[in-house]
Amino acid sequence: QVQLVESGGGLVQAGGSLRISCAASGRTFSSYTMGWFRQAPGKERDFVAAISRGGATIYYVDSVKGRFTISRDNAKNTVYLQMNSLKPEDTAAYYCAATSRPWGTIRITTFVNYDYWGQGTQVTVSS
Hints:
Strand content: over 45%
Structural class: mainly beta
């Protein structure tokens, strides 16, 4: 089992940058595929990015490609989401998620395939 805690959210102007982090408990962080999702008020929870256990494979939703970068540090049990060129439509609560199933065995863009979730961190982009 793993517990996830996000941090680093906040208020930023359009065009600005923010890095959010997700710290995981336990000693088996490297065995989890990690994902970031976001949810705006009144909307569904949407996939943002995912990274494989070792970090070699990454996937982004089209709307953030070229602006967001997902990374992980298995020695620190942490996954990051660097967000650049932020837009007002990026405003949402951002959640990290973990699944023990390896990349390629599940649809990593579907939130029901993740077993563990953080509490979320709010990102607000002003225009």
